[in-house]
Structure to design on (131 residues):
C-alpha cells in the first residue's frame, strides 16, 4: 500500500505546537515515575495523513534527556511500518537531523512488538531552552 505524506503549513504549525508543549519541563516524560506513556497523553501526538506520530522529551533515570519520536501507520496490518523516506521527512519536521546524516548519534529502531519506528536524539540547550 502506498501511503502519501502531505506536509501542509497547518501540519507544520501543529507539529511545532507539540514540540513546544513537549519542551516544557512540566510535560517531560519520566520513565519509572509515570505510568502513562506520551502516546496516551494529550499534547504529544498527531496524525499526519495515515502516520501516527508521538513526540516527547524524555528524562531518563540517569538524568540524560532525549528527544524521542515514534511513528506508526494506521490500517490494522501488524506488519506495516512507515516508509523510510516518509519517516525521515517526519523526523526532520520534528527537528531531528537528516537520518542519513553521518552525524546522527542514533539510528531509527523498529518496534517489532508495537509496529512503529522510533528515533531518539540527545536533547541539548541548542534544541530549545530547558524550561
Amino acid at each position: 500500500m502506498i501511503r502519501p505524506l502531505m506536509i501542509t503549513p497547518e501540519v507544520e504549525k501543529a507539529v511545532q505546537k507539540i514540540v513546544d508543549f513537549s519542551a516544557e519541563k512540566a510535560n517531560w516524560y519520566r520513565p519509572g515515575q509515570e505510568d502513562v506513556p506520551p502516546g496516551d497523553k494529550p499534547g504529544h501526538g498527531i496524525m499526519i495523513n495515515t502516520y501516527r506520530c508521538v513526540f516527547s522529551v524524555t528524562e531518563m533515570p540517569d538524568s540524560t534527556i532525549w528527544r524521542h519520536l515514534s511513528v506508526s501507520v494506521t490500517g490494522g496490518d501488524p506488519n506495516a511500518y512507515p516508509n523510510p523516506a516518509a519517516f525521515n521527512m517526519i523526523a526532520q519536521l520534528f527537528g531531528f537531523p537528516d537520518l542519513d546524516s553521518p552525524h546522527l548519534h542514533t539510528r531509527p529502531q523498529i518496534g517489532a512488538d508495537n509496529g512503529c519506528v522510533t528515533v531518539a536524539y540527545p536533547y541539548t540547550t541548542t534544541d530549545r531552552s530547558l524550561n
